[in-house]
Amino acid sequence: MIAVIDPTEAAPGPEPTLDEVVMQLQKTVSASRLSLYLSCRLKFFFRYVLGLKKPKSAALHVGSSVHAVLKAWNKARWRDQPLTLKDLHDEFTKAWTDTEEQVEWDDDEAEQQSTAWKLIEIYTRQANPTAKPEFVEVPVESDLRKHGLPKLVGILDLVQAGKIIDYKTSGQTPNAEKVAHTNEVQTSIYSMLYRENTGRQENGIELHHLVKLKTPKVVITELPPMTEQKQSRLFSMIESYVKGLDRRDFVPAPGLQCAACEFFNECRAWH
């Protein structure tokens, strides 16, 4: 028999030490953690080691709401129970309002909400996929101990026809060559996770950008399967992550990206 503990009755344990937090972070690695560590180690420290909480950005709220609706849409297709436009709008309203996080609106919320719904409408109308989803929002992991590396963890948005599909919302039209490079960590990790859990090589990767323009549009970037060179690069990056955590290497990386960083003030005060 499994004992269920009421968390309200459980005595609070001691706060984990910095060393304990770092050790936990070294046991597994995800695309988001690895990407953030490689882009700014101090931002990684604030978010994952100290666990500092910040208001959710408007762009992130739009993205997560759109993502939640597309998840429901794909699951319905997987069950052969397609959703009507009204069903989709109900899912969207629920996703938009069901958030306990404070959202930092940099524009009119109603306008942002309208834009998000237009993205969903245009995507579900244009995509019109004939292939049935194989996996929808599946948590997967891959043990890389044989390579001397930690466990990979992640969630695959969608797999159909052997292709890994990942959704992204964007404020500008993506450049295929640039997004292939800037998303290399994520796409390589997804390829590893897919291969380790299916025993097959993916047929390719598709990045589906839902672009928030005055007239919203969908841009699909098709990428080939991960090469041995990309796998080698990924393993080197993960090794750098592990060794960096060993050294407690949490230094800032000042640059143009800092203007929109939620930890701007904390970074300025760092010494």
Please give a quick description of this structure.
By secondary structure, the protein is an alpha/beta fold. 47% of the residues lie in helices and 17% in strands.
Task: Tell me about this structure.
Strands 1, 4, 5, 6, 7 and 8 form a six-stranded mixed β-sheet that branches. Strands 2-3 form a two-stranded parallel ribbon. The longest helix has 21 residues. Helix 1 runs antiparallel to helix 9 and helix 5 runs antiparallel to helix 6. With 271 residues, the protein is of the alpha/beta class.
- How many distinct beta strands? 8
Compute the average pLDDT.
91
**Using only CA atoms, what is the Rg?**
20 Å
If helices are DSSP runs of H or I spanning 4 or more residues, what is the number of helices? 10
Taken in chain order, the helices and strands follow as HEHHEHHEHEEEHHEEHH
Tell me the name of the CATH class of one domain: Alpha Beta
**Proportion of residues in β-strands:** 15-25%
CATH domain topology of one domain: Lambda Exonuclease, Chain A
Give the helix level as a range of percent. Answer: 40-55%
Secondary-structure class: alpha/beta
Task: Give me the CATH architecture of one domain, please.
Answer: Alpha-Beta Complex
Overall geometry comes to globular
How many strands, which pairing sense, and closed or not: the largest β-sheet?
6 strands, mixed
Termini separation comes to: 52 Å
Low-confidence stretches: 1-10
